[in-house]
Input
Amino acid sequence: MVSHVIYLSRMVFRSIVVAVAVGITTASLLSLKLLPPLPGVKPPTPMIPSPLNIPQVAKGPLEIALISVIAGLIAGLLTMAAHYYYPKYLASRNKLLIEKNMIYILGHMAIMASAGATAEEIFSSLAKMGHLYGIKWLARSVVRDFQLLGKDVFTALDEESQRSPSRELASVLQGFISTARSDGHLGGYLLGIAERYIEDRRRMLSNLISRLSLASELYIGILIVLPTVLLVMLSIMGFLGGGFILGLPPHTLILILCYVLIPAMSAIALILTDLLTAGW
Output
């Protein structure tokens, strides 16, 4: 785990390096246009002549310097923005992974607690097997705090729950701490929470199946039946010498349908299906 000071230092350093590199590269490429041609060497002619009269981008050293500085600043700002949003992306990804595996995390903890394992033993086990549930980093951080730094295990859990990207996991950890400090039955607490999550997951799966069933019917109707009917109609119109539709002949519309509309709608359907099944 990297501290915020080190991460900000890396962000500033990498942004400066990228800005300087892009600025120097841009200046070098634009400066090639100002070099005089070599004697006896004919400048190459473009393979496809363009009728457009495109003005020269840089006419002198001042323009090259200005463009290079602007390009470097843009590249540096983009690098800084990428570093700024990367932790949010990681937190969102870890949150989805944790909440996806919450049932298995609770099951693992409940089995060990019911067998009489202590909190230290439970999180030491999760530190070894946490990669299966997506919380290895969290469990290792807790184990490091109470084994290496000498903190109380419940203090370490409280601090980790405040840093957790998932509010559900934070709530479970706070309940775990309260139950353990009040000499409650950890196994019963964890089993009760696990049963609640199982019921919630069943309800969510039922809703997901209903949405996927509706999506499959729409897919069949829009991407299978409708294109088939349109192809038959356009083919008959082209065979009989039908008129233009939207200013285009039938054979052109067939090409647009086959090579543009159907692939585009299929890509949209794949994206929507991926969004529906996200987290599963």
